[in-house]
Amino acid sequence: MRLILVSNRLPVQWDGTPSVGGLATGLSSFLSEWKSAGNEVLWVGWPGKSIPDKEQISYSEKMRNEFGTIPVFLKQKLADSFYNGFCNKTIWPLFHYFTANCEYSDITFESYIEANEEFAKVITNFYEPGDWVWVHDYHLFLLPGMLRNIFPNILLSFFLHIPFPTFEIFRLMPERFRTRILNGILGADLIGFHTQSYTQYFLRTLLRCLGIENERGIVFHKNHLTKTGAFPMGINVEQFRNYSQSKECNQIANSINVNHKNLKQILSVDRLDYTKGVLQRLNAFELFLKQNPHWIRKCKLVLILVPSRTDVSSYQTMKRAIDEKIGAINGSFGTLDWTPILYQYKGFPFEELVPLYKNTHVMLVTPFRDGMNLVAKEFLVSQDCGVLVLSEMAGASAELPEAILVNPNDLQSMADAILEAIKMVPDEIHSRNQIMTKRLSENSVKSWAEKIYIETEDAAKKNLSFQTKSISPSSDILLPKTNKPIFIIFDYDGTLVPFESLPHLATPKPELIENLKELLNFDHVSIAIISGRDKLFLETIFAEIPIHLVAEHGAWHKPPTSSRWNSLFTSSGEWKSQIKNHLDEFTKRVPGSFTEEKDFSLVWHFRNADPDIGLNAAREMLDELSQVSSNSGFFVQRGNKIIEVREYGTGKGKAALKILPNEDLNIFIFGDDTTDEDMFREMNESVVTVKIGKSETIAKYRFRDPDDVSLWIKNLIVFFNKEK
Ligand code: GDG
């Protein structure tokens, strides 16, 4: 199988030198195993600068042959507006909670769309069915949706490397941007995040922004199923560990250390970015020196800042502030033979970075917010006897609770943490680090990538079974195959008519009533409506039609020829008053919800409630009621924005069996809800069962919506007329 990795930046820069960043290095172990199993890998991305038109063909050939990379060419103006604009002035600050830094510009959003389209075009040129496409990060939110439109069956993963913010933050983005972004990511089969919290924030955002619910992290949208989940990215543990224990690494470590043998080394390594909290870290170090003067001349802070986004003016301003702060600390605390901060504004090769980790006593990783932070993990597997001071706001803190966790906004706690770390005894350091490094070895970057592949494949399989069930209402498969009498059962809400905000507004169009009447003119056709609605409602709606009506999920039955309702089940009803009080409590608590009372059941509706509050209350209610329902005479079922509490032993499935005549029939059953699954389950293989809508079903076929049901009815009429 061929893997097509897609990220904004390629693992090699335009001139062939390696890019700084965790992804390429991290993935190398997974990729080499992938390739040695006979698979191919191609990496698609922007080369980082504009390449003149006439050089593009030869450049592409060279990159593909030498590095297995495929460049996406973006004109300088577009690249600037896309990358420096929408990516780094809108998404990056917003998703890291720097809301005051955000700009919302239609111009840069247009560029964002255009750049994503350029990526889609390049992939379209060489994509082949069977390839696995794995899109990375926030620069390419729209790409999964674009690719899904072109290749409906593409195997597609998306991984977000930065945090996904809470809904309240996400919705600060104008609706026209955010809707498009969410729809774009949902084109993937799998969406991975670093932590459980980011996943939950994303799912909640889908609910609040698009009204899309999830079933245990699975989302159905536009006839496509997407799995979501937390996949904390690991590192290439062996690579760091092996090198850190090598002779070469020891030699470099000793040579770096030669002038500072007696100083405890505090290390800080970041890309220059305001999210990393570098200035705050310097302030904490200054406070530490002020409050603990006995550590003066006994420690040094090695501060490495890797240049990044150097053409953005706010980054230049930040760099100046950091430079000044370093100057001030060195000026006021330094002596002729000691400088507190050794500052390096450049990247270091791996071979020099690891010896620095190894020499370190205290590693400061204190970002204001960070998707994961791989530096913290790399340090842990490379150190000899070093303490990790880690921000609670970094995704890595969820996996590394044995580190000294700090709030980067709390200067005093950071200064205290430096002191605690620098004084920590080796036994304690080893015991803390051992637990963390063991965990890191078990969750290496290789197993991270493998899990993502397995889950993506699983989602794609689920999608396939979801799609194979989808059928056109005019398909011949849905026509009667024999001339036996025909019995059709329809659910009402969500099947014959779409949902409305209030139940009494959901009524059939006159055309539908006419078509049902016409169908019943064929004397071998019988129709039943089996609904959760009450008797009066069904009687009123279907007053003119000779049809079986079954109300309250099978509690009552009125045959076509009769004006009387018979009870299909017997009821004790003892449970009702107690449960009604309980549901009423929820109704008081959740604005927009209400309780409906029927002869054999109680229904709590939350369609008009705030989606989040409604859903949470429904979960709570389900949980509470299912604990008391056994042997209590009732059972609880979740429906479409409702919770139904019903007399035990009743149900649509049993009701359907009771009203079906005892003869050989062509049976068709249509329903949209979990209560309709009861009917599908009770029927034998010969019955044609059709689910309306997206969620999981045991029905044989699937229609998109009630309009498909109306089309099927019309199609059946045409068929019978032809047969006459
Ligand atoms: C994103 C998210 C998430 C750094 N300086 C040098 C150097 N590095 C390497 C490190 C590490 C990588 O860069 C930095 O990884 P981070 O995790 O800290 O952050 P980002 O790559 O900026 O960004 C982040 C990550 O994606 C992965 O999902 O953790 O939260 O923002 O691997 O070793 N490498 C070399 N010289 C350096 O000077 N060779």
From TrEMBL:
InterPro entries reported for this sequence: Glyco_trans_20, HAD-like_sf, HAD-SF_hydro_IIB, HAD_sf, Trehalose_PPase
Source organism per UniProt: Leptospira vanthielii
Protein name according to UniProt: Bifunctional alpha,alpha-trehalose-phosphate synthase (UDP-forming)/trehalose-phosphatase
Transmembrane portions of the chain: none
Origin: domain of life: Bacteria
Family: Belongs to the glycosyltransferase 20 family. In the C-terminal section; belongs to the trehalose phosphatase family.
